[in-house]
């Protein structure tokens, strides 16, 4: 699986799970071609207006801020298109001074998103930064995206089920306590 942790494959299976603020890079949810060694959670978004305006990325820029910049600059990110293999090399050539670690984390967020995974699940073609069609999306990558989506849906259903069970248990405990208080008050009057 070590061979799957390449930057070039990181761009491939990105589903901008419309990167929600609560979402962090999750290698579990990435396709084999997009698994990125993103390390810890991405730091909170920081403003880098000067870097964004010039097209350069400051090393201190967060992965989320970089992803937002990429979505503004490049149609492939904005439209959540299946990314070409080697998209990291394209990014490095287009954005001088781009911090590789931040870029990998941003690609991990993008390719692990629900939106990107949904796009990959149905995709037939990959796209470069400008949105120009390129190589074909393999059945393996489509299947992996589908499996990741199913896994996420199952986890969410399990989480909701556990929450519902915990709420029911809390309500049952509250009712038991209330009944005990009623009995205590009834027998303490005498």
Structure characterization notes:
- By secondary structure, the chain is mainly alpha-helical.
- The chain has one domain: Fertility Inhibition Protein O, Chain: A, Domain 1, CATH 1.10.1710.
- It is 55% helix and 4% strand.
- The protein is built from eight helices and two strands, in the order αααααααββα.
- The protein has a two-stranded antiparallel sheet with strand order 1-2.
- A hairpin with a 5-residue loop joins β1 and β2.
- The longest helix has 50 residues.
Q: What is the total tally of β strands?
A: 2
Q: Mind telling me which CATH architecture this is?
A: Orthogonal Bundle
Question: Between the first and last Cα atoms, what is the distance in angstroms?
Answer: 74 Å
**Corresponding CATH superfamily:** ProQ/FinO domain
| Tally of discrete structural domains | 1
Mean pLDDT level: 75
- List low-pLDDT spans: 1-59
Q: In angstroms, what is the radius of gyration?
A: 23 Å
Please sum up the structure shown.
With 190 residues, the protein is mostly helical. It is built from 8 helices and 2 strands; from the N terminus they run αααααααββα.
List strands and helices in order, with pairings.
Layout: H1 7-10, H2 49-54, H3 63-73, H4 75-78, H5 87-94, H6 100-111, H7 114-122, E1 125-127, E2 133-136, H8 139-188
Antiparallel strand pairs: 1-2
Helix pairs in contact: 3-6, 7-8
């Amino acid at each position: 699986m070590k061979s799957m942790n390449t930057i070039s494959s990181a761009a491939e299976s990105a589903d901008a799970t419309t990167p929600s603020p609560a979402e962090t890079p999750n290698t579990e949810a990435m396709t084999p071609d997009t698994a990125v060694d993103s390390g810890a959670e991405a730091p909170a978004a920081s403003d880098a207006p000067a870097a964004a305006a010039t097209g350069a990325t400051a090393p201190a820029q967060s992965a989320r801020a970089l992803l937002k910049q990429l979505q503004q600059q490049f149609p492939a990110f904005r439209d959540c298109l299946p990314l070409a293999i080697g998209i990291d090399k394209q990014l490095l050539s287009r954005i001088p001074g781009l911090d590789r670690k931040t870029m990998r984390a941003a690609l991990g967020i993008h390719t692990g998103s629900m939106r990107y995974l949904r796009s990959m699940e149905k995709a037939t073609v990959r796209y470069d930064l400008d949105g120009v069609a390129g190589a074909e999306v393999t059945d393996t990558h489509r299947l992996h995206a589908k499996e990741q989506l199913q896994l996420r849906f199952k986890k969410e259903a399990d989480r909701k089920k556990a929450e519902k069970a915990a709420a029911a248990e809390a309500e049952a405990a509250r009712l038991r306590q209330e009944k005990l208080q009623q009995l205590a008050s009834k027998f303490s009057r005498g």
